[in-house]
Design a protein that fits this description.
263 residues; 4-stranded mixed sheet; 10 strands
């Protein structure tokens, strides 16, 4: 429905999920969470979906948690913000990072607080040049959430992670690219065309191998080198038995495009 806080559309093998509270810069509410996680679950279960795009309606991607949402306002003091994380943001972050297909965040405007880290949970972040990223938590006496404490130092290093998190300064999209926080920034008018081009490219690739690539790279960041090599071997052994590997080799030998089907 047009007035739903989450819109879902499918074009070919690409599922687009749009946060749809443009008047509030698509800030999170309990009602939005109630539709967003099921939308991601449905995309994960749909075998026809081979890439996912997440974006925001209007001039913003997501301004983080809507502190005026009656369903999220604490009725007791002190507020149990941790319960909000456990109920909404842990499931959201872990769902995005475990999707069976690549996920692209199309950041069309401000991405702040949990909205910024929700985008960073995705496999790719493409941003409009007018967009910006703000770790706004320190401004209200909190710490980064929605996976931010794990993501930030791994993406940009401890010094920049602390700087972004402690100051809460606005980070323009081009600077986010320069420091390695996001994949790329493009002219505003070219954002969705660029995102869909990438999404369709990924949709034609071996989905299971792409998801496994995400898993082993994330796991390797916590391992010593020898253990990481063992993890590689285990993953390659499993992938080597797949139909996609057989198809890829056959297509290479025949000098034809591969038609991947594993998911």
């Amino acid at each position: 429905m047009p007035d739903s806080p989450v819109l879902v559309a499918t074009q070919g093998a690409v599922r687009t999920i749009t946060l749809n509270r443009p008047a509030a810069l698509n800030s999170f509410t309990a009602a939005m969470h109630a539709e967003l996680l099921p939308a991601l679950d449905a995309a994960a279960k749909d075998e026809a979906v081979r890439a996912i795009v997440i974006t925001g309606a209007g001039r913003g991607f997501c301004a983080g948690q809507d502190l005026n949402d009656p369903a999220m306002v604490a009725t007791t003091e002190p507020a149990d913000v941790g319960a909000v994380i456990e109920r909404y943001y842990r499931p959201l972050a872990t769902r995005v990072r475990s999707m069976p297909v690549p996920v692209i965040a199309a950041v069309n405007g401000v991405a702040a607080g949990a909205g910024a880290n929700f985008a960073l949970c995705c496999d790719f972040v493409l941003a409009a040049r007018s967009a910006c990223f703000i770790q706004a938590f320190s401004k209200i006496g909190l710490v980064p959430d929605c996976g931010g404490t794990w993501l930030l130092p791994r993406l940009v290093g401890r010094a920049r992670a602390l700087g972004l998190a402690m100051t809460g300064d606005k980070l323009p999209a081009d600077e986010a690219v320069r420091i390695g926080l996001i994949w790329d920034a493009v002219e505003d008018a070219a954002l969705m065309d660029g995102v869909m081009e990438l999404a369709n490219r990924l949709a034609a690739m071996p989905s299971r191998a792409l998801a496994e690539t995400r898993r082993v790279i994330d796991a390797a960041m916590l391992l010593d080198f020898d253990t990481a090599i063992t993890l590689e071997a285990d993953a390659q052994r499993e992938r080597g038995h797949s139909a996609d590997f057989s198809e890829g080799v056959a297509a290479f030998r025949a000098k034809r495009p591969a038609l991947f089907k594993d998911r």
